[in-house]
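Working notes for the structural subgroup meeting. M.R. asked for a predicted model of this chain before we commit to crystallization trials. I am recording the input and output together here so anyone reviewing the notebook later can reproduce the run.

Input as submitted:
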Amino acid sequence: MKKIIVLLMLGCSAFLQAQNKVTGTVIDATNQPLKNVTVYVSELHNGATTDENGKYTLYNLPKKTVTISFSYMGFTTQNKSLTITGSETVLDVLLEPSVFEMDAVIVSTGFNKLQSQNVMKVAHESIKNLEQKGTVTLIEGLATIPGVSQVSTGTSIGKPVIRGLSGNRVLVYSQGVRIENQQFGDEHGLGLNDAGVESVEVIKGPASLLYGSDAIGGVLYFNPEKFANANSLSGNFSQKLFSNTVGSNTTLGLKTSTENWKFLVRGAYNTHSDYQTGEGDRVTNTRFNETDFKTAVGYHNTAFSTVFRYNYNNLDLGIPEEGIAEQTTNKQTIFPKQGVVNHLLSWNSVLFFKNSKMDIDLGYIANDRSEYEDSAIPRLNMKLKTLNYNAKYYLPTVGKFETVVGVQGMHQTNTNFGEEYLIPNATTNDFGVFGTVNYSWESNVIQAGLRFDNRKIVADAYGIPGDEGSFEALQKKYDSFNAALGYKTDLAKNMALRINLASGFRAPNLAELTSNGVHEGTNRYEIGNSALQTEQNIQADLNLEYKTEHVEFFANGFYNHINHYIYTAPTGEIRDQNAVFEYIQDDANLYGGEIGLHFHPHPLDWLHYETSFETVTGKKSNGEYLPLIPANNWNNTIRTEFDSNKWFQNGFATLNVSSTFSQKNTSGFETNTAGYTLLNLGFGGKVSIGKTVFNLNLNANNIFNKSYIAHLSRLKTDGISNIGRNIILGLNFNF
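Returned structure, recorded in token form:
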């Protein structure tokens, strides 16, 4: 069946003959060929895998300079710049062994360089590594990355926090376009499923130079899964089971490619009951169900590459208002609840010229958010439609100067259809223009850039002035210039230093400008402020890395000053039995960092020890602490790797101890949170039984069933604990 499908696709594209091939052999330091090395050209979405003789072939490459990456577990990743001049070019590669994680190609910073060559320190994690930690949702996995936390509502709703900043201060990118899903609300989750996602890149700090408004705190950039190699067909099925929520996560995917055409499709279904605390109680209506579907089609030749992707995501989320009440493992949500439907369409095209190229991303997002109080008719229904565009032109390289200029923009409309209004009907238009230059010599790299942005917001009047849920007409315009400067150098043979200074900005969102009522799940009456000014920040980052054959060490420090920081504060008034909060502004400072060590002792080649510590402090100009600042965390992991015999390969076992310290640096209306320590176990590998081969992951998280409350849990005010012991079994079959 596989051969038939591949032959059919080859027949459809027979007239498109392969041109400008690159072939070669990949070997190790002993001149032995390496099998299954991943060879990939990211700008073409074109890849190959070496055979048993270490040989590979890439087809239909443009006659220009391209960057080809070679990656293989246990070896140092290499980026090779190759100028294609004829119909066939030979590129042989020698890979050096490395016991640490592969040096990934970073795409979120514009120049597609290896992290070791990058001016900015960007955290890169594969979804496979996050899944091995046994977390229930994608955002839980992200929160294990140093410097990243989450504002959570049970296990179903989580919002990313980067170094103390969240909500509209953190941009999320998927399929090359920014995700817009009413992210201003703490009870509005990430809205992404990890199925069909290969990796995530985390920029910790202002990235307004590259992404405009709302990237003041950082960026989460999700890279979609790669297409199949040329002339191949592959698929996989995975199943995960969760003991605590009696839940399951099922994924099925299929992909195939010819030398020009590419296609993939993937579906996933996620269902969970109410989670159980360490005390043995289930938290009523924290259950949720999720359906996700992704598909993509791509084409490339020697002149251009184009990829169209579509993602459908449907979330049925319970809203836990009763606390510890009905005890059941039913997965059907009850009232009150949320229904969120996302349609994400993206189109990426790369046009190749003689010595330059144009990279264009177009995106359309239709977000439908409904809240149901006591019937199937939503009391609140908001439809957010967003059109994004992003065009980058890579100028011809002049000496060692690489230059990118571009324009970005967004057209967004919010329309209400329910009887309750959370924010008014409104239109937002963004436009930005930027340029950035990268200059490298020997072991030094300098990157600098400048950007201008304009945002216009027009909101309609609604209701009777003074009544709850009423809004006045609004017209606002915000402008901002921002700049970034970074420097990377090697202080010694194995030691790298990065220094970055960047400014960022964020225009007030609709909720901050216009709120007038009780928000579902917040238990407070919020009042907006139409006079709010743009948040403007400047952040300094320092990164030091040291890496030898057996030791890897990093230290990150940052200082972030924000003018006109927007936050809510209680007025002392009570309306409808809810405390009144209003949006106000003050200058703020956030500072802290992350430090970590990875030790691989010789000759114990099967043993790894990793430890990291993260801290952040946030204060207003008057010395008071900012709200929603995560507690300090110290994370320790011992990992062993082994091959027991032919039927069990690439085995691993992990012991993780995560210690979260008490949080006493709280704002005036927050309460202190006690510290806690969680013990987690993991085990897995590749199992071969006859002709059946699958990957196994077994995790036991919070093994001692510890009862604890995370500082950023939205259920904290009701004294409700986080999730207790959770045993996760995961199976993945490739075919």
